[in-house]
Amino acid sequence: MAIKLYCIFTVVVAPLLVVIHWLRYHIIDSTQQQSSVKVMMDSGGSGSSNSMNAGSGGTGEEWMKDITKQVSNQEVSPPQQKDYPCKKSYSHLPHCNTALSKEERVQYIISQLNTKEKISLLGHDSPSIKHTDLYLPEYKWWNEGLHGMAWTDCCPPYKWKNVTVFPQVIGLSMSFNRTSWSEIGGIIGTEALQKVHDSTTKSQIHPGLTYFTPNINIFRDPRWGRGQETPGEDPVLTSHYAAVIIMSLQYGNGFLKQLYGKKYTKTNQSSMKPRISATCKHFAAYSLETDRFTFSADDISNKDWTDTYLPAFDSCIHAEKFLNDYFEIEESSVSSSRGALGAMCSYNSVDGTPSCANKDLLQKKLRNDWDYSGYVVSDCWAIANIYESHNYTSSLAEAAGVAISSGVDLDCGDTVQGHGYKAVQEGYMTIEHVDRALSNLFGVLVDVGYFDQDEHSAQTDDDASRVQYHNQVALEAALQSIVLLKNGDNESSPLPLSTTKHRKVTLVGPLAHDKDRGKGDILLGNYHGVPTNIITPKDGLEGLGLEVEYYQGCDVTDKSSKGNSSVQKEDVCQQMSDNNDAIVLVMGLSQDLESESLDRTTLQLPDIQHKTIQHISQCAKASNPNTPVILVLITGGAIDVSSYKANKDIDAILYTNYPGQAAGQALVEVLYGMYNPSGRLTTTIYQNSYMNEVALDDMQMRPHESSPGRTYRFYTGESVVYPFGHGLSYSKWDYSLEMMKDEAVVAVNVSNKAGPDGAHSVLLFHQGPNAGKKGNPIKALIDFDKVYVSSGDSQTIHFNIKRWIESEEKGTHTFMVGPSDESILQITVPM
């Protein structure tokens, strides 16, 4: 055995320009070919298989916290023509022949490779292989596009510039708008395809057509640092988001338009081919950062698996069928087999078996039960963690073999590349396992047209009209993500403000202009690229022609960037003008408080922000009781706002979730009534006492002796601050429900009784005869829709309830609209 030194250097760190070096050692078979693999992280990587875990005596969490700094905004290579596997001198070979079947093309590639070459291709950074009868350029499997093009492990690791950054996913979900999700997924896929051929990346290497997105785990606990990446706490909502975003990323937003128009037939759907692959992650039961490399999700009941942890993955894998069923498309008219081309296994174990070595998950459930035909990738360095963190195997070679033989096809990491040959020699996996993995990997690359491309097929489409459209969609998404939590009392509504009465605005808060961190970056959340422009709240107010008096007020956290105790930046009350017309406080969280590798330890704002809010609101009202004080909260996870809800000095609360590049414009348009707010919460806002009621690592959703349960479906603890689905409007809405004659359909009439025109999210909940008993939900969302209603007008929405009234659960079934049960319809199923 010989020790080989792998020296990996990463990128120019913006803005510090620090060159980061990592020494990585592997004990491998002396005959194993050497490969160089960059040290990076995925949607959650742990770092190098040795230096991050065993070598450093830790899991690399400190390194993980700086990941956004390690992905450079700089470009370091001169422009080069992109390299393609089927360029002219190879275009005649079988794998480039589009007339052959996918299986024939894939088998040809595999037949040209020897064992060492095959194993070398099982990592996210796949090396170039050049034969007389085969050319495979270096390929980068690892690309991110959570809520816009983020970055790629390519060229070197590179954060995409001049891309559209939409609101964080938890914010997108608050729109309850499938059409919006479809537009956004379509735009991300379009921009991804452009970057494949974009010469400005200054590298021959493809950024890749394979994307590790979306994150569809359930946001079961508000402390989870990555809950911001998900559509929220409800499995039905998450399932719909998963299906729509998968199909629009891979096939374009036209897919959903065809369904809405009932024009989806075998004829017009057969020509649709995927342009990129998307990945359902993280499979399964992953929803905490604390000890995530060693955590085992144990004692999950069959009911919790069935109605919480698995539904979104089912809809993600079967996205086309899920949407066909929902829109009642006849099965005979279409093939409904399409869905996500990628699936990612998670860091955690399930009942003691690491997810990436779990045959029950990867073979029985994914391949057998769900008939999945795409590829499975490990979360980054999760295969190394099978040995180093979970202690499930006796060596890295065994970990590599167990993962591949259990159903993993691609190692996001380098453990299989470094130890896979030994794993074959020692019988932990066979060459048949390796060939199966390659067949799945190359099959996906054939699906997305990677082997159809040549140097003549490069295409870019960055015209001004398209960019303008993308920016407009980002603004609309930000507008729909904003939730109005509080707006005065029953006698008065301070919002919307008036552009004539409220022209002088005092703006306070560390998220109002973000000068310390780099203008506006804090508004983007995590996993984001670099947009052409970020509009901060200060920019938005000034863009409306208002007079803005701006103060940072305080830091975001209770600790400064140097680790010292944070202090208020200035006494705003002493400095601000006495004649201001409105005061807007922009507070919230940042990636320093919630992020990958970092769960929250409180549901409250940092103390420094809380004191600033209390101080300024009190002195503002003392100076002029008629000056409206508006609190804007920007966050990922739910914040306990009970003290601000009860505080009479705070007139209104707006709530949004890292709203993206158009954040400031969207907030101002809502503040000043140019947009009627329609967002609704997709997580419950609990009191901070929740921290003592439920353990973070308790995976059970339903109440038991040491827990009051989780989420609005099961929680029986202290009264919540605001429920799932809450969201006010500038209009007064009214509903009526009726059962359609001879149909299992509920008609919901939505009336805009008073106020401006506006969109409205209509949520239909169900309560069964045994609601809250015998493990049944207290109530559960079963459908939703978005409708635009002019002032004084009404619209009718139809919801199919056949599944519930034909269930085996006999007795009274109650259907209700809205989180406060504004209108109900009861149907009795005979015993």
What is the typical, i.e. mean, pLDDT? 86
Q: How would you write the strand order of the largest sheet?
A: 15-20-19-18-16-17
By secondary-structure content and strand pairing, the structural class works out as alpha/beta
| Poorly predicted runs of 5 or more residues | 1-80, 264-271
What portion of residues is helical? 25-40%
Please indicate the percent range of residues in DSSP E strands (runs of 2 or more). Answer: 15-25%
Alpha carbon gyration radius: 27 Å
Main beta sheet: 6 strands, mixed
- Our count of helices gives 27
Q: Give the N-to-C terminal Cα separation.
A: 72 Å
Name the overall outline. Answer: globular
Instruction: Tally the beta strands.
Output: 27
Description of the structure:
The structure is a single chain. This protein is α/β, with parallel strands linked by helices. The protein is built from 27 helices and 27 strands. The strands form 9 sheets. The chain has a 6-stranded mixed beta sheet with strand order 15-20-19-18-16-17, sandwiched between helices. A 4-stranded antiparallel beta sheet has the order 24-23-26-27, with no helix packed on it. It is globular, with a radius of gyration of 27 Å.
Short description:
With 831 residues, the chain is an alpha/beta fold.
Descriptive terms for the model:
27 helices, disordered N terminus, alpha/beta, four-stranded antiparallel beta sheet, 831 residues, single chain
Describe how the helices and strands are arranged.
Layout (H helix, E strand, L loop, with lengths): L1 E8 L11 E8 L22 H5 L5 H5 L1 H4 L31 H10 L3 H6 L4 E2 L2 E3 L2 E3 L2 E2 L10 E2 L5 E2 L9 H5 L4 H19 L38 H17 L2 H7 L5 H4 L9 E5 L12 E2 L4 H8 L1 H7 L1 H8 L15 E4 L3 E2 L2 E2 L4 H11 L5 E4 L3 H7 L7 H11 L8 H11 L5 H17 L16 H18 L1 E5 L16 E5 L28 H7 L3 E5 L20 H4 L6 E7 L18 H17 L5 E6 L7 H5 L5 E5 L6 H9 L18 H4 L17 H4 L17 E8 L5 E10 L3 E10 L12 E10 L4 E7 L1 H4 L5 E7 L5 E7 L2
Parallel strand pairs: 9-11, 10-12, 11-14, 16-17, 16-18, 18-19, 19-20
Antiparallel strand pairs: 1-2, 3-6, 4-5, 7-8, 12-13, 15-20, 21-22, 22-25, 23-24, 23-26, 26-27
Helix pairs in contact: 4-18, 7-8, 7-9, 7-19, 8-12, 8-13, 12-13, 15-16, 16-17, 19-24, 20-24
